[in-house]
Specification:
Strand order of the largest sheet: 1-2-3-6-5
CATH architecture of the domain at 24-128: Beta Barrel
Strand content: 15-25%
Shape: globular
CATH class of the domain at 24-128: Mainly Beta
CATH topology of the domain at 24-128: OB fold (Dihydrolipoamide Acetyltransferase, E2P)
Number of strands: 10
Radius of gyration: 21 Å
Length: 234
């Protein structure tokens, strides 16, 4: 028994030596300081780690070989003023990291401001929900609807620049100015939320697939239906 107790103690010591205290965990959180704003939705912490906000997508300003997108500078400047040097709380969803080894997080200021939501509600970002990190998807959808209805930020700009003819309106499956995020590996099905708030998914090869702007990506039709999306009516 004594020998067994010694062995168990040694094993516990080895496991403890191999563990990584403070390592971001699914559904966990951590305190951090924003050292630098890379882009409207991407930041660098004082530790040197990069953070990508979950569920939102601001127009590109620093993507290599990619032009600065409309309202990108405004979104980047807003994030710089809001976050540079600020102490924040990062909360994680199912996946703490993306494939680029960036932290995936919901970010909160010390006064409780939910940064991800604020960027969407003020019109500096579109929603970009990629399963399995969907804990705040409904809140972001509500925030984007409010921003669009009030022509805030990029929605006001897109109305003027992309739909100059007031008699021409987008079709029910189209959503002006929403850009496709990079397609996650193994998730070919596009999920789109149209101007009426209808959640519709499109499979590769369908009539509207190519022109549909994806806001969510799914691996299977069952996964899309579970998230509240339906197939097109035509």
């Amino acid at each position: 028994m004594k020998r067994m107790a010694i062995c168990l103690a040694l094993l516990a010591g080895l496991l403890g030596a191999c563990s990584t205290p403070g390592q971001p965990q699914a559904n966990g959180e951590m305190e951090a300081t924003v050292q630098r704003v890379v882009d409207g939705d991407t930041f660098e912490l004082s530790t040197g780690e990069k953070v990508r906000l979950i569920g939102v997508d601001t127009p590109e300003t620093v993507k290599p070989n990619h032009p600065v997108e409309p309202y990108g500078k405004e979104a980047s400047d807003f994030s710089k003023q809001l976050l540079t040097g600020q102490k924040v709380t990062l909360k994680f969803d199912v996946e703490p990291y993306d494939k680029y080894k960036r932290l995936l997080a919901y970010m909160y200021l010390q006064d409780g401001t939910f940064v991800n939501e604020k960027l969407v509600r003020e019109g500096y970002a579109r929603i970009m929900t990629i399963p399995p990190n969907v804990a705040q998807a409904d809140l972001f959808l509500q925030a984007e609807r409010e921003a669009r209805e009030n022509n805030r930020g990029l929605w006001g700009k897109s109305t003027q620049t992309q739909n100059p003819n007031p008699t021409k309106t987008p079709t029910s499956t189209e959503k002006p100015s929403a850009a496709d995020p990079s397609q996650p590996e193994g998730k070919p099905i596009k999920g789109n939320i149209n101007a009426k708030g209808e959640k519709i998914y499109h499979v590769p090869g369908s009539s509207s697939y190519e022109q549909t702007k994806a806001e969510m990506w799914f691996a299977t039709e069952e996964e899309a239906k579970a998230a509240g999306f339906r197939a097109p009516k035509r």
